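Hey L., structure's done. Input below.
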Amino acid sequence: MDKKSKIFFLVFALLIAGSVALTFWRIMIARDYMIEAQAECDPKLEKCFVTKCDPANLAEGETCSDDPQADTSYYKIIKRKASRIPLCDPTSLDCRALVCETGEADCEYTYCDETNKEEQVAECNDPSTYVEPVTDTSVQDVSTCATGDVCDQTPASIASSSTSTKDLIDEEVINEADIKGKDMESEEEFKRDEVGTGSDEIVK
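Output:
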């Protein structure tokens, strides 16, 4: 190998090493790249991507909860520079990893529309017509109620409870009336006995 070839391969190796080192510094140290993730979205105020639990797409062992509110997810897409994202748990209330700060450069939200919903395999919600899913409370946990905790009652259970309470009140009123009636009868008999005794003494 001549001198020119050695110089060529040396320069080529240095370029590769420099490129690898620069990439390592940019990604691992400076974190100079963009992150795209799903962020929380308020369906009452924002046009969110909407996905619902589909048993056919769940991993083995996972199931839907049969609760419309728990099985429905609302999100928006956030693009933020990695160097601006704090190293914290995104599920923590104090973590602002997936939040664009006011006036922050290189940070933006993408909301649902007709052109990008297919890419996300989701539907779009309309904040002006949003109605919060109603949780089915028709079945009560008897074991929980038995411990003395307050249970969420359904209209049917409330009506039944009200009827039972009314029956108890009516029964108490009737019992009180019977007691008062018996007391009045006893008082009248006592008075008649006194009158009869007085009359006998006068005759004697």
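The CA atoms of residues 35 and 95 lie 16 Å apart. The radius of gyration is 40 Å.

-- N.
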